[in-house]
Prior knowledge:
The protein has 8 helices and 7 strands; from the N terminus they run E-H-E-H-H-H-E-H-E-H-E-E-H-E-H. The chain has helices at 13-24, 31-40, 44-53, 61-74, 90-102, 117-125, 165-188, 201-212, and strands at 3-6, 27-30, 81-84, 109-114, 127-129, 136-138, 192-196. A hairpin with a 6-residue loop joins strand 5 (127-129) and strand 6. The protein is globular and about 50 Å long. The N and C termini lie close together (11 Å). The structure holds adenosine monophosphate (AMP). Residues 9, 31-32, 35, 52-53, 57-59, 64, 85-88, 92, 162, 171 line the site of adenosine monophosphate.
Amino acid sequence: MNIIILGPQASGKGTQADLLVKKYGLFYLEMGQILRDLVEKKDKLGEKIASFINQGHLVSNEIIMEVLSRFLITANFQKGILFDGFPRNLAQAGVLQKELEKQKAKIDKVIFLQISTKESLRRLSGRRHCPCCGRDYNLVTMPPKKGEICDDDGCQLATREDETPEIIKQRLSAYHQETLPVIDFYRQAGILLEVDGERSIEAIHQEILKDLG
Ligand code: AMP
């Protein structure tokens, strides 16, 4: 089973993706994280990727396709794949379809986690991560036990560089202009599951499981 999970920033894609990966033993492609890991390498490619991310723009399709093909070489098509945050524009959706066809595979379901722009902004303002162990928190929806300190190692939590109000505005605009047409594309293909993302993690997870069967 190959699944895509899409939705606006902070709609809970990563959280639901983790649950599905564990439940079905899927192979996991988290495009945003792969790109951030490449930025950490601080080489030429990393610098180029950072320049897109830090302006709130989508990374160029050329780089994304390169990342995709590297990932697909290692992917296990028997297990099935969960694509998180990919594809984010129609060109990427087209390439993905072609690459899967080569493997005689297809996308079975696209989960669209819907939240309002207001809710997206509310959640984004609370997002923190631990710079020591990488654990994610949200002061609004998943706070640490004490202040802004990591429960696991006591490190002071940090904010992602691309989560300043100005960059968030740009990222939301990219979502509206480039990713919403992708969602329409899968809706027309009849494989879109639209889920109200403004409910509890468990309620959303159960609805997804019910649909996947
Ligand atoms: P995310 O953590 O999923 O919100 O992704 C963070 C940033 O990585 C985005 O704002 C984009 O700059 C970049 N990014 C993630 N996925 C893609 C994609 N499929 N295509 C282009 N850029 C992406």
